[in-house]
Amino acid sequence: MEKLLDAVAAVACLVSPEKVQAIASRIRRTETSKAAAALLGVVGTPAAAGLVDQLIDAWQSTPVSADELASMLLAAGHVSIKAASEQSTELVWTGPTTPFVSARRTEQALLQVINAANRTLFVTSFVAYDVSTIVRALNAASDHGVAISMLLELSQDHGGTITFDAIGKMRALVPSARLYAWREKAEPFSDGRVHAKVAVADGIVCFITSANLTGYAMEKNMEAGVLISGGKIPGMLENHLLSLIDTKVVSPV
Known about the structure:
Blueprint: H1 2-14, H2 17-28, H3 35-38, H4 46-59, H5 66-86, E1 87-94, H6 106-116, E2 120-125, H7 132-143, E3 147-152, H8 166-173, E4 178-181, E5 198-201, E6 205-209, H9 215-219, E7 223-230, H10 233-246, E8 251-252
Helix pairs in contact: 1-4, 1-5, 2-5, 6-7
């Protein structure tokens, strides 16, 4: 049965909703032994046809009826559509591209998160230089009443590990931002750094990336990340960052 459930899930996730309904309709009108012929040509790509073949093979090794399988497909399809509507995940990439995979650029994704904020915005980065488009967007968000928090690595002069005073620079560029640093480190993390690069708006949309807030990261470096809208992850990330403040793991500067 597990093999059949996996096959149903694969079809529901990777085949269009219309095709899932067409497959379910044909299955409901056929017998197990005639399924291959009945479903021939119902999907248009080799990959989808392979999934249908796997579904047929799995079905033939179970006592599940045609009506039951059709209902399983329709239910799985509905869950897949609902999940997709509640959360979307996009690949984000800066650097050399290929014609085979499409992806959002790092700067575009970060700007989307900043512009999506209505109440709160939390950004973390290892280093932060003057990225004019990002700075303008942050100040515009602040002008619209968004409370901006930023967690950055301290400079060597202030007990951190980088030569550049990113916190001082950001204080000048985005005066309204609440700036935080990781000063007091428990023994297991004594040599640790603020190496996370994330941005989360209102606990609803977040960007998790390898990119720092630098021009090279936005335009030239090979950087990868994911942009997540909806679902549980953005809220969990925001709650974790706020909890680091509440528990005084990180502190204002």
